[in-house]
């Protein structure tokens, strides 16, 4: 490209030197033949023709000179880039390991790719932490974040910026930049502080800490022994209190007692008493199954209780009896059903008949329930309920 610029300058100089020489020759020829041509018949036409030729020549020469002048006045792209590069830093000084930023900017040219210096272009004392690239309508730039690990002023020169096109590549050296080095030692010296080491302080005698540990251990041991002595002494003085084992109550016996209590009560005559009568019988059977099987029968609906009995492989006869009792109780409670005296007495009779079925069916379950109760309360072998454990 530099060779092309020099060639354009030579063409402009040659054209400008040729222009006055050609114009002088044409003027002399015109003066020689102007008088003769004006005398003959066709002189006027020839004169006009010569004027046209001269005007065309001067116009073409002037236009060519203007084009060459514009080409000569334009700086080559390399010179424009040299004048458009900038390198600067916001930091006025640098110190060890303190991050600082340096910015390099160059004029933008769309047909060239700008390649800024990478980490290999900087001295080893500079550690590149980050490089942030940016672009505007007029220039491209890169902001470097460095950490300096040296002890002298930093001078950056000779940084090459590459400009790369399809068939042309050249580099331009960025302007140098100097950043002074700042040290904490300089601040200490500026304050007038001495850099000499202070004298070592004398050693002091301290009390052995293990002595306190030994004393603390002895005190804790004495306190533990006193606590142990008074605790077991009070136990020895306290009289032995008799304790009786709780009496086991069979769920079936509890159901039977509840039905006997309902039979002994007055016969229900009002609607509220009838509702209580049916609910007591229903709850008695629910409590029986909840105690024996651990199923929450009191909080369950009638349908849930019957489904559980089917899963527990209860006999069909017992399930039919329980279903009849639960349905009658639900009808009285929710459907405002009003049974007559015969139906009320029949409900209690069917309840006692159901007990007979439960005795045969749940004999093993009741025995297992009793053994579980005795094990839970710590019954000794061959002991009877109500026996004192002295």
Written overview of the protein:
With 390 residues, this protein is α+β, with helices and mostly antiparallel strands. The chain folds into 4 domains: 2-74; 84-185, Immunoglobulin-like; 208-238; 251-376, Four Helix Bundle (Hemerythrin (Met), subunit A) (Up-down Bundle). 55% of the residues lie in helices and 13% in strands. It is built from 11 helices and 9 strands. It has helices at 2-39, 43-73, 77-84, 184-191, 209-237, 251-264, 271-293, 302-311, 316-334, 341-361, 363-376; strands spanning 86-88, 100-107, 113-115, 126-135, 139-148, 154-156, 160-164, 169-173, 177-179. The chain has a 4-stranded antiparallel β-sheet with strand order 1-2-5-4. Strand 7 (160-164) and strand 8 (169-173) form a beta hairpin. It is elongated and about 160 Å long.
Quick recap:
With 390 residues, the protein is α+β, with helices and mostly antiparallel strands. It has helices at 2-39, 43-73, 77-84, 184-191, 209-237, 251-264, 271-293, 302-311, 316-334, 341-361, 363-376, and strands at residues 86-88, 100-107, 113-115, 126-135, 139-148, 154-156, 160-164, 169-173, 177-179.
Features:
4 domains; 390 residues; three-stranded antiparallel β-sheet; disordered N terminus; 11 helices; 13% strand; alpha+beta
Which class do the helix and strand fractions yield? alpha+beta
Termini gap: 120 Å
**What gross morphology would you assign?**
elongated
What value does the Rg take, in angstroms?
60 Å
Helix coverage percent of residues? 55-70%
> What's the total number of strands?
9
Q: Tell me the CATH topology of the largest domain.
A: Four Helix Bundle (Hemerythrin (Met), subunit A)
- Give helix and strand order, one letter per element, not per position: HHHEEEEEEEEEHHHHHHHH
Q: Can you give the mean pLDDT?
A: 76
CATH architecture of the largest domain: Up-down Bundle
Largest sheet, spatial ordering of strands? 1-2-5-4
Q: In total, how many domains does the architecture comprise?
A: 4
- List the uncertain runs: 1-21, 68-75, 385-390
Strand proportion, as a percent range, falls in 5-15%
For the sheet with most strands, the description reads: 4 strands, antiparallel
């Amino acid at each position: 490209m530099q060779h092309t610029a020099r060639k354009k300058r030579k063409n402009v100089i040659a054209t400008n030197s040729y222009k006055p020489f050609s114009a002088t020759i044409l003027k002399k020829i015109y003066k020689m033949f102007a008088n003769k041509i004006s005398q003959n018949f066709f002189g006027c036409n020839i004169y006009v023709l010569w004027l046209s030729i001269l005007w065309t020549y001067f116009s073409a020469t002037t236009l060519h000179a203007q084009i060459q002048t514009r080409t000569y006045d334009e700086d080559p792209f390399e010179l424009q880039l040299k004048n458009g590069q900038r390198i600067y830093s916001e930091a006025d000084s640098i110190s060890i390991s303190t991050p600082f930023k340096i910015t390099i900017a160059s004029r933008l040219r769309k047909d060239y790719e700008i390649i800024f210096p990478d980490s290999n272009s900087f001295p080893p004392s500079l550690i590149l932490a980050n490089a942030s690239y940016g672009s505007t309508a007029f220039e491209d730039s890169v902001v470097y974040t460095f950490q300096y690990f040296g002890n002298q002023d930093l001078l950056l020169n000779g940084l090459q910026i590459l400009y790369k096109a399809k068939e042309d590549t050249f580099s331009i050296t960025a302007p140098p930049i100097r950043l002074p080095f700042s040290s904490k030692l300089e601040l200490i010296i500026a304050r007038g502080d001495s850099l000499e080491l202070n004298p070592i302080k004398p050693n002091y005698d301290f009390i052995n800490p293990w002595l306190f540990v030994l004393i603390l251990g002895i005190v804790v041991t004495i306190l533990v022994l006193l606590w142990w002595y008074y605790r077991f002494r009070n136990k020895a003085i306290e009289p032995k209190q008799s304790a009786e084992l709780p009496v086991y109550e069979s769920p079936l016996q509890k159901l039977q007692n509840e039905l006997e209590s309902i039979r002994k009560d007055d016969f229900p005559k009002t609607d509220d008493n009838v509702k209580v009568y049916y609910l007591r019988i229903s709850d008695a059977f629910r409590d029986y199954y909840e105690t024996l099987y651990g199923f929450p029968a009191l909080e369950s609906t009638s349908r849930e209780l019957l489904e559980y009995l089917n899963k527990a492989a209860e006999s069909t006869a017992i399930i039919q009896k329980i279903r009849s009792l639960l349905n009658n109780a639900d009808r009285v409670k929710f459907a405002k059903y009003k049974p007559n005296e015969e139906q009320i007495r029949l409900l209690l009779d069917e309840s006692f008949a159901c007990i007979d079925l439960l005795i045969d069916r749940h004999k093993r379950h009741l025995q297992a329930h009793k053994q579980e109760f005795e094990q839970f309360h710590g019954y000794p072998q061959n002991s009877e309920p109500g026996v004192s454990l002295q």
